[in-house]
From TrEMBL:
Name of the protein in its database record: YesN/AraC family two-component response regulator
Principal cellular location given in the protein's record: cytoplasm
Domain HTH araC/xylS-type: 450-549
Annotated SUPFAM superfamilies: CheY-like (SSF52172), Homeodomain-like (SSF46689)
Length: 564
């Protein structure tokens, strides 16, 4: 998409240029127009301008003065100067300012089209070169990111089994932490994400959480952040000091105490500024590098087993002393199976509202348990997955589910970081299955395209509709709108509008007393020769020949009627 600004203080010329650009349907253009340099500057302040077509002599500010201002804001803007003056001084000034072209008025429409086509081709060439450089830079960044990701995966899984391998990786990746000192491990989990959060938004929140943690700890320690299996992990060491080994160990214990004191403040800040509930676990103060993997797995296991706890948990140091206990006396395995059978009946009967309420109530009751034993968690998950899989297989609709909701979540419990995610997934799946059963799964894309087509047909008889007008009306980009329409209708939007345009042209040409010039203007053609050429290209004969041929045909009909 290229944004074009046309500036001319003569209204007739401005409208002619503007409409010529709108008719360039083979190029994706968004066109603004202004009757003065001042008005054009206002447009440029809030919109990117790729191509500027400006008159050279205008009241208040000349086109050449305007070029200097444009270069400051949009350095890569291509500029075409329009002028009724051919003296050497104007041409020299334009060339000195590196304008793309200098056109003398009056300008033929074909010259404008040809010039715009050339400037767009140059822009695309430059963009391709820039894109290649950007891709190369991104690949370099991705390679570094992948190496960091590979290091964290191996570190926390225990694949880096020797201190030598760990030392080599830290040195190579220049990770700002000492490999000859023990660490403190902090693991964080977002207990509940707001509904509708996308992956990108979650990553942004992870960065924001990390910034808050560093705000409290950066001044007193070295800290490195990782994201592993949906958890945030911080490896922390005492800041560098000239001291012996005993002093360093003592400093680490002091730092551990300090971190334990501020965890509550960190948690409150995250809740206040980001509106997110977060649980935080703090390890013992002296975790060796070869013990990090075991410590991380143990801390994640406690978060997983404590999945039924209330939000915003803080565990400090003594996590190895905690013993899981199942206190849900009102939720025996038999009760759970009874609940699952009731849910299955509601799902089978199509009672979506009752199913949603029953499932939500079931999960709320599970959250009241202090520690829900892991085998019992697996049993509940297996019941729910089996219920949905049975429903899907009985109706042979698995192919539809693959596209909408990934079925891998029905076979891997570890994909859910907490129960709120699992509840949300099963609720979405229930809603989708219900919509399939009710036959309400009409493509949203098809609905949009049908609306667009109806709008075109309804409006085309009264006015010419441009692609940019349609994009604005339906709040879509012109490029996406074109692709969407073609994929659903099997014909390009440009071709569709061309068909309607020619149909309307033939109707208007047959209106008695209607001149060809009037027909051209009504269809948005301000140049009659261009309209005639366009008509002949698409219909095979000129508008005049069409009128004459139809006149002969009508004459023959009248003659027959008169003889009768």
């Amino acid at each position: 998409m290229n944004n074009v600004l046309v500036i001319d203080d003569e209204p007739i010329i401005l409208e002619a240029l503007y409409n010529t650009l709108l008719r360039m349907e083979d190029h994706e253009l968004f066109v603004w127009k202004a009757s003065s340099a001042i008005e054009g500057i206002e447009i440029m302040r809030s919109n990117r301008i790729d191509i500027l077509m400006t008159d050279v002599r205008m009241p208040g500010m000349s086109g050449l003065e305007l070029v200097g201002l444009v270069r400051k804001q949009w350095e890569r803007c291509k500029i075409i100067i329009l002028s009724g003056y051919s003296d050497y001084e104007y041409l020299q000034s334009a060339l000195q300012q590196n304008v793309f072209d200098y056109l003398l008025k009056p300008i033929d429409e074909e010259v404008i089209v040809e010039t715009l086509t050339r400037v767009i081709a140059e822009i695309e060439t430059i963009m391709l070169e820039q894109d290649l450089m950007t891709k190369a830079e991104n690949q370099l960044q991705k390679a570094q990111s992948l190496l960091h990701k590979d290091f964290s995966e191996k570190l926390f899984s225990g694949e880096l089994l020797t201190q030598g391998l760990i030392d080599e990786s830290i040195d190579m990746l220049q990770i700002p932490i000492r490999r000859d000192q023990d660490v403190i491990v902090v693991v964080g989990r977002t207990d509940r994400w707001p509904t509708g959060y996308l992956l990108k938004e979650k990553l942004l929140m992870h960065y924001a959480i990390n910034n808050i943690v560093k705000e409290y700890l950066d001044s007193v320690c070295r800290i490195v952040t990782f994201i592993e299996n949906g958890y945030m992990v911080w490896l922390i060491q005492e800041a560098d000091r000239d001291s012996g080994e005993n002093r360093q160990e003592q400093d680490l214990i002091t730092l551990h105490w300090y971190i334990g004191e501020v965890l509550d403040k960190i948690q409150q800040s995250i809740r206040h500024y980001l509106r997110l509930p977060v649980s935080l676990l703090l390890s013992k103060p002296n975790i060796g590098w070869l013990s990090i993997a075991h410590t991380f797995k143990e801390m994640c296991a406690w978060l997983q087993r404590g999945i039924g706890l209330e939000e915003e948990i803080i565990f400090i140091e003594q996590i190895d002393e905690l013993k899981p206990s199942y206190e849900g006396r009102d939720h025996s395995p038999i009760d759970i199976k009874r609940s699952m059978n009731h849910l299955l009946n509601l799902l089978e009967s199509g009672n979506l509202t009752s199913f949603q309420k029953e499932l939500a109530d079931f999960f709320r009751s599970m959250q009241g348990v202090v520690f829900l034993e892991y085998p019992l968690q697996l049993e509940i998950y297996a019941h729910l997955s089996g219920m949905f899989l049975s429903y899907i297989n009985n109706r042979k609709i698995s192919a539809f589910i693959e596209d909408e909701l990934e079925m891998r979540y029905l076979s891997n419990y570890s994909l859910f970081a907490q129960w709120s995610e699992m509840e949300a997934y099963f609720l979405r799946l229930a809603v989708y299955l219900h919509s399939l059963a009710q036959g309400e799964n009409k493509s949203q894309k098809q609905e949009i395209v049908d609306e667009i087509d109806a709008y075109i047909v309804e409006s085309f008889s009264s006015e010419y509709i441009s692609l940019t007008h349609l994009a604005k009306t339906f709040h879509l980009s012109t490029s996406y709108l074109s692709r969407l329409y073609h994929s659903e209708k099997g014909i390009s939007l440009t071709e569709r509008m061309k068909q309607l345009r020619m149909t309307r042209a033939k109707e208007l040409l047959l209106v008695e007393g209607k001149k060809i010039q009037e027909v051209a203007l009504e269809l948005g053609f301000y140049n009659v020769p261009y309209f005639s050429k366009f008509f002949k290209k698409n219909i095979g004969i000129t508008p005049q020949e069409y009128k004459q041929n139809h006149g002969i045909a009508m004459g023959e009909v009248r003659s027959v009627m008169d003889n009768k």
